[in-house]
């Protein structure tokens, strides 16, 4: 049997409460008869007999019943709100997990609205919208009462309810497609604004505001256009509904008055029938009024079903002993997450069968020209990307067989573009682990050489780094990022261009950190072209166009390259061609394919 998704389980919470709510709805709908029945008694008994005691008695009974009605309504909505909170509680963690996984698998995919979608569904399921659905089954009861008053009153009320129901259906068919398109377009426009605003400084500095505003306005106008069309259609139907509603009021009173003239019913019944018909129509009208929210909730439900259907629960993995740092990559193939399948029937490969082994305690450099796949490779080494083929094994176990939490704890990673999270320097270094000791945070900062730099910050380790670490400079961010990577001394550390923003002091600290990790027997992978860092590595992997061009001990590889360069130079001199410009002494130019 297929296991229920967390979404299905969370809906199950509502299902249990819905049973009780339907029961409450039954009683509260029965109690809605109090008003019309009171009216009937007052008109037909009290006014006819002029008996004050009867008036007091029936008023007391009516008030007592109305208090009960109020209580039932209160409990009914309380039950729903509680179910809503439980729904949210059951989904919050699995939804967050899926947003992260969806984002990893498809960076441009649309899971960004998943958390808001949960709110949208919850708000509908606990609000007025759903109550209209619970009250709807009792509509026949009220209509039956109208029939009991007089068949003609029943017929007028039933025809009225059918017309309003038909108008509600017309509303659905006339606006469904448009509202759905408007909803999707609105999501796209909001996502565009969110992602674009992250680059506000570039927008201002490069004078891109007008162009981007134009692009956003294009999307926004599309949303408005579709919403306006839908609202126009819905407005016409709403106006018709109001007209029908008021005409019905007159029709039922008129019919009642006519029957009263014929002395087939009393005037009390005439008024009571009008009230009962009002109650019968209320849920239908309420449903029409709540239509927009209903459509939004339905779309949100569809998106949630898709996200939860596509990504199951992560299996609970066995906790393995902490990895020692033996890395083995065999035939690793990577494809672009959002790429379309080409004419070959597969997505274009970014990594084309990478294989290498790295033993515990070895330090490896990854070099290669821009776009050769270095960052893609390291993302696979830390398990942030799923291989399209081949395997990445840590201590013999494939990365996705490790428990993700454990793997994260036992591994250090510093991406090319270090982003910190809103919080203090301490929280960022300690990866927001609650039981982190100050001594561990300081140890990581000292190992990465960031301790002194952190002490110069306004509030030292307590400094708030701002959104994404914006309050720190690029170099400071990178140094805090390195401290975060080496927190709790992991046995495998992967650094993607860790020195791109560092000054001379930062570079020295980085080199010292790598040396210290090497001394401690850690396995380190660094994407770099800097000679001083390359000199610290045991092995070098050169990538070109997503394939391994060279792999071997760094010394041998560079000796070969130096020899190749020497020979090329000699050949050039021989031909008395122009001398090539000298390369920077601090940078080894590895971005060209060596002519070995
Ligand atoms: N999400 C993605 N979707 C499509 N293509 C991608 C994606 N990520 C990377 N690529 C492509 O994969 C190739 C390798 O990118 P990668 O970032 O791994 O290169 P790199 O060697 O790290 O480059 P650099 O040295 O400039 O950082 C590039 O051609 C890039 O355009």
Automatic annotation (TrEMBL):
GO terms for cellular component: plasma membrane; type I protein secretion system complex. Gene3D superfamilies: ABC transporter type 1, transmembrane domain (1.20.1560.10), P-loop containing nucleotide triphosphate hydrolases (3.40.50.300). The keyword Plastid does not apply. InterPro entries: AAA+_ATPase, ABC1_TM_dom, ABC1_TM_sf, ABC_AprD-like_6TM, ABC_transporter-like_ATP-bd, ABC_transporter-like_CS, ATPase_T1SS_PrtD-like, P-loop_NTPase. It is a multi-pass membrane protein. Residues 562-596 are annotated as: Disordered. It is found in: Cell membrane. SMART domains: AAA (SM00382). Residues 20-296 form the ABC transmembrane type-1 domain. Keywords: ATP-binding, Membrane, Nucleotide-binding, Transmembrane, Transmembrane helix. This is ATP-binding cassette subfamily C protein. It comes from Sulfitobacter noctilucicola.
């Amino acid at each position: 049997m297929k296991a229920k998704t967390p979404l299905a389980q969370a809906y199950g919470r509502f299902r249990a409460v819905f049973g009780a709510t339907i029961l409450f709805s039954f009683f509260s709908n029965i109690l809605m008869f109090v008003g019309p029945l009171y009216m009937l008694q007052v008109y037909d008994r009290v006014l006819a007999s002029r008996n004050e005691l009867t008036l007091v008695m029936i008023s007391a009974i009516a008030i007592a019943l109305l208090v009960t009605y109020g209580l039932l309504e209160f409990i009914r909505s309380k039950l729903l709100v509680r179910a809503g909170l439980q729904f949210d509680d059951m989904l919050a963690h699995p939804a967050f997990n899926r947003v992260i996984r969806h984002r990893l698998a498809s960076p441009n995919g649309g899971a960004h609205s998943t958390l808001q979608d949960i709110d949208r569904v919850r708000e509908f399921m606990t609000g007025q919208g759903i109550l209209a659905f619970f009250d709807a089954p009792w509509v026949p009861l009220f209509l039956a009462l109208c029939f009991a008053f007089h068949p003609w009153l029943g017929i007028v009320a039933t025809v009225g309810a059918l017309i309003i129901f038909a108008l509600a259906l017309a509303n659905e068919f006339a606006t469904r497609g448009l509202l759905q398109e408007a909803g999707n377009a609105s999501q796209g426009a909001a996502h565009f604004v969110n992602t674009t605003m992250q680059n506000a400084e570039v927008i201002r500095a490069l004078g891109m505001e007008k162009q981007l505003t134009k692009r956003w306005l294009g999307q926004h106008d599309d949303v408005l256009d579709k919403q306006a069309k839908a609202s126009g259609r819905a407005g016409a139907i709403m106006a018709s509904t109001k007209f029908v509603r008021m005409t019905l009021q007159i029709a039922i009173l008129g019919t009642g008055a006519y029957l009263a003239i014929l002395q087939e019913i009393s005037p009390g019944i005439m008024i009571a029938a009008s009230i009962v018909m009002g109650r019968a129509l209320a849920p239908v009208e309420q449903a029409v009024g709540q239509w927009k929210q209903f459509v939004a909730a339905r779309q949100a439900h569809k998106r949630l079903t898709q996200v939860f259907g596509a990504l199951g629960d992560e299996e609970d993995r066995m906790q393995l002993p902490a990895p020692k740092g033996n890395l083995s990559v065999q035939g690793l193939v990577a494809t672009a997450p959002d790429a379309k399948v080409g004419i070959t029937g597969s997505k274009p490969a970014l990594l084309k069968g990478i294989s290498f082994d790295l033993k515990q305690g070895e330090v490896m450099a990854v070099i290669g020209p821009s776009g050769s796949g270095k960052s893609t490779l390291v993302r696979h080494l830390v398990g942030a990307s799923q291989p399209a083929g081949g395997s990445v094994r840590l201590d013999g176990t494939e990365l996705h067989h490790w428990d993700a939490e454990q793997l994260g704890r036992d591994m250090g990673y510093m991406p090319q573009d270090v982003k910190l999270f809103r919080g203090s320097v301490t929280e960022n270094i300690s990866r927001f682990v609650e039981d982190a000791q100050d001594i561990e945070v300081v140890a990581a900062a000292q190992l990465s050489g960031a301790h002194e730099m952190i002490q110069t910050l306004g509030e030292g380790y307590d400094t708030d780094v701002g959104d994404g670490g914006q309050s720190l400079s690029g170099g400071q961010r990178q140094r805090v990022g390195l401290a975060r990577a080496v927190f709790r001394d992991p046995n495998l550390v992967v650094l993607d261009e860790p020195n791109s923003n560092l000054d001379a002091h930062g570079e020295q600290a980085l080199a010292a950190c790598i040396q210290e990790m090497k001394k401690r027997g850690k396995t380190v992978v660094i994407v770099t072209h800097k000679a001083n860092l390359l000199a610290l590595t045991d092995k070098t992997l050169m990538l070109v166009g997503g394939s391994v061009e060279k792999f071997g001990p760094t010394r041998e590889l560079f000796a070969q390259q130096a020899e190749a360069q020497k020979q090329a130079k000699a050949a050039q001199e021989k031909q008395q061609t122009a001398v090539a410009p000298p390369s920077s002494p601090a940078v080894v130019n590895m971005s060209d394919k060596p002519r070995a």
